[in-house]
Fold this protein.
Amino acid sequence: MAAPLTLDDHPARQIAADWARHLESGRLRSAHTVRAYVATAHRLIAFLGRHHAAPVDQALLARTGVAEMRAYLAYRRQEGLGNNSTARELSAVRGFLLFAGVAQPRVKGPRVKRGVPRPVAPADALDIAEDAATVAALPWLAARDMAVLLLLYGSGLRVGEAMGLTGAALPLGDTLLVHGKGGKTRVVPLLPRVRAAIEDYVRLCPWPMGRGEALFRGAKGGPLRAELVRRAVQGARTRLGLSGRTTPHALRHSFATHLLARGADLRSLQELLGHASLSSTQVYTAVDAAHLLDVYRHAHPRAGG
């Protein structure tokens, strides 16, 4: 006869382990993200065990509702979690419960103070891609969302340009030929991580990649619509507590601003962005100056004097 389970024996931990393997498969998640997400799942399981005074298995996990979620978030807030961190915690919990087949409790995240609009930080750009992929219904859709959003940030594409890519882009190299506005074409860099994400998507996609067919597909095999990309970013920014101005186009802006901050000249940036006029590119000097001034005001010891 098997020994009875104790409060230290939570069968749901196996679900968390399976989730970790799911997150890692196809290199869709970084090791850091997997550790953070799974640690959140373990915290939730341990909390539910104490809350119900019983080992947490699939059946008990399925009973997780609004009351339990609010109690868990209150517990985490008591531990010192701020609004942004709580929003990220809630996003990870939702991803875990979705993987476990649990109906999503309708719990609103904390209100996050909206600051002055600024470029998306590199870590936030990656978080957006990873979060959007986490809630995708199927592994190949998760790989698609990851690839598209990394491409917007890593190569500075417009959404329409990414949607216009076809199977002719395959096999991928170090650069990508992009057809932009006005029928102009340009060559953009393809970073190793972005290339790997696209290759993972192509490997998992159930639809054939003909040279004349859309590279990025919708769930039924047709070309992916830009509106779905915008919705994916909107959902991710809400769950992560980011600014309402964090849009797919903001990822392109961030690509430009970060290159300029690293010393890229305006002419080179104009070519990478596909701007017809240099005046369109010069706006990024103002954006970068505003960002630097903000950093100065917060960091310089005499900035307020």
Residues 31-52 form the longest helix (22 residues). The beta strands are 175-179, 185-189.
